[in-house]
Amino acid sequence: VLGVAALVAVALGTPTPSARADEHCPWVGSTRPRAERVAQLMERMTTADRVRMVSGIGLEAAPFGGVIPVNARLCIPALELADGPAGVANGFADVTQLPAPIAAAATWDPDLVERYGEIIGREARGKGIDVNLGPTVNIVRDPRWGRTFETYGEDPYLSGRMGVAYVEGVQGQGTMAMVKHYAVYNQETNRNVAVGDAVVSERALREVYLPHFDVIVDEAAPASVMCSYATVNGEHACQNPLLLETLKSEWAFPGFVTSDWYAAQSVDAAAAGLDVEMPAGFSLGTPLEQALARGAFPRLRLDDMVRRILTQMFRFGMFDGPDPGQQAAMVTSAVHAGIARDVAAQATVLLKNDDAVLPLDSSTVDSVAVIGAAAGPGALTRGGGSSQVDPPYVVTPLEGIAERAQASAVAVEYAADGPDAVALAAQSDVAVVFAALHETELADLSTIDLAEEVDRLIAAVAAVNPRTIVVLNTGSPVTMPWVDEVAAVIEAWYPGQEYGSAIASVLFGDVDPGGRLPVTFPRSLDDVPASGPEHWPGTDRGVEYAEGVFVGYRWYDARGVDPLFPFGAGLSYTTFAFDDLRVRSEGATATVEVNVSNIGARAGSEVAQLYVGYPDRSDAPPRQLRGFERVELEPGETARVTFRLDEGAFARWDEQAHDWMVDPGDYRIMVGSSSADLPLEARLHLP
Ligand code: GLC
Fold this sequence. Notes:
Blueprint: H1 2-11, H2 34-43, H3 47-52, E1 66-68, E2 79-83, H4 101-106, H5 110-126, E3 131-133, H6 156-171, E4 176-182, E5 198-199, H7 202-209, H8 211-220, E6 224-227, E7 231-232, E8 235-236, H9 241-250, E9 256-259, H10 267-272, H11 286-293, H12 299-315, H13 334-346, E10 349-353, E11 367-371, H14 397-407, E12 411-415, H15 418-426, E13 430-436, H16 452-464, E14 468-473, E15 488-491, H17 499-507, E16 543-544, H18 553-559, E17 576-586, E18 589-598, E19 604-613, E20 624-633, E21 638-645, E22 652-654, E23 659-661, E24 665-672, E25 680-686
C-alpha cells in the first residue's frame, strides 16, 4: 500500500508520503550511503528516464523558472528552480523583497549576507522551490552593465566572500544554490550571441573573472553552477572546454552545470560538460536522444550528468521526506523584514558629510524638506529583470522619515519637484533630495548620469539650502555634477521593501551608515577602462577586454586616475584610527594584525581593509584587496583585527607556465579604510 501511495503521491508531483524505505523505491528514505542510493536508483533508469532528467519542461514550469519533471515510476520528485539572488522572484507573493545584492555587498559583512541568504533559502523552501538561482557573482567590468545591481561589485575577493556567505545561507536552509553566471558575463548588449565574444587574456580570466567561482565552489559547495550567455575567446560558455574543464577537473566541482535560459547551443554542450538545459530540451531533449540512438553521444557522459543531478537531490534530502513547500505559503515575516531593514541600513554608504550635517539633530533641526519623486510612491527599491522580487509592501523614504521625525518633534514636508520643491527647501532647515536611476537585466546603461531634470533639481535645491543632503537609489556608480554644492551624499542602492525605515534610522543617527563601496564611482565615463566601442559594448569582432586585469580600482590606481569616490570608501558618524600594524611571515603565507580604534564620540562601524602590492616584476595592479573585516566599536574602543594571508594572496597567473606563480621580492601590505586611504604599510619579503 505504501508503495502505491508513494507512486500516486510522486505522480502528482507531491512528496513521497514518508521517510520510510519503500519496497518499490528502496532508495527513498533509505539510510544507505548517498552514492549507493544513487546507484540503486540509476540501475532502474532507462535511457529515456535519464534523458528526461537533463532538461526542463519549458514554459509549463510556471510559476517556477524551470522544472525537471517528476518520474513517478522511480519516485523521483520534480526539481523546481526559481530566481533569484535578491529574494524569491518569478512573481511569487508573500515573500521578502531584500535589498539588491550590490547593497548586500556594500555591507562588507559576510555574517549579515549569510542571514540574507538564509531568508532566501527559507522562503524558497517554504514555497516548494528546490533550487535558488543565485547568487550572481559576475564582476562589474564597466558601470554601464544593466545588472550591476545584481552583483557584488568589481572585486573578485569581495565577490568571493559574499558569494560563499550567500550560498552557505541558502543551502543551510535545505535549498540548493546555483552560483551564476559562469563566466565572463559582464554586459547585456549582445548577450547569448557570438558577436558578444569576450576576447580576454588568460591572466585576466584567472585573476579577475574566475577566482571567486573557485572560492565559492571550494568553500560553499553550491549544488549547481549556471553557465552564462557569454562567448569566451570564441567558444560559448556552456560548451567552453577551458571553462568547464577548469570547473570540473581542476576545481573538482561535483555538482551539476545548468545552462542559463536558452544558453545551451547544441548537444555538444553536454559533451563538453553541461549537465542540465533550461528552460527546455531544445538540445538535450530529442536531439540528445537521437545522438544517443546513433551512438554519437557517450552514454557514460549521460550517466555522469544524471548522477550529478541525483547526487545533489539526495544531498538535499529530496528522497528523505515530504517537501514542506506550498506555492501559496506566507513565507515572509516580521523577522525577515527586520533583517531586510538591517541590511539596507548597513549597506548605506555615507560618501560626504560636510559640517556633520548628518545625523539630523533635533536640537538644530526643526524642519526637514523631503524632495523628489524617488522619496514617495515612486521609490525605487529593486532592479529589473529575472531577479525582481514583488514586495508585500514598501516603506517609502517619506513614510519612514515622517514616522521617525515625530519622535524628534521635527516637522516634515514633501514636494516631488519643480518650484514648490525649491521653495520648500528654501524655508526648511534641511533639504533631503532623493534621486534614482533604474537598472535592469536585458539593457545596459548608455550613460552613468542621473536624468538631467534630476541633476537640475538637486542643484536648484542646493542653491537655496546649504544643508542639502542627496540620497541616491542607483544600482551602480553615477556621476554627481552637484557634489561640491551639497552638504552630504548617501548611496542607498536599491534597498528593498524596508527602505523608508532603514534610511530614516540612518538620517536620524539611530544607525551608523555602515556601507562601503563595492564598486568605484568614476568622475565620468571618460575615466573608465573601456575607452572605445571595441572595448564596450563591442563590435562585430567581439568585445576586447583590453584592460586585462586592470578592472575597477585596479585601473584607476594603475593609471593614477582620481575617482569621484574610491572602491571601499564610506564614512561613519564617528571617526576611526588604525595603528600597530604587525606582519608575521610564515613561508609564503603571512599573518597581519592591526588595531582599529573608535576615536569619536559615537558608536559606529568600520571596515578594515587589507590590500597587497606586488613587486614591479609581477606587472600587477598597484594594490589588490586581500582581506577585510567589519568592526562595530563604541567610543574609545579598540579592536585587534587579524588577517591570514595564504599563498594565493601573493600569486599571479603566469601565461607561459599556465599556472599560478609567486614572484620573489618585496610585497607591500597596506591596511586602512578604503583602497585610497591606507595609512599603515609594511613590507614583506618573499624568497
Ligand atoms: C535569465 C538570467 C538568469 C536567470 C534565468 C532564469 O535570463 O540570466 O540569471 O536565473 O534567466 O530566469
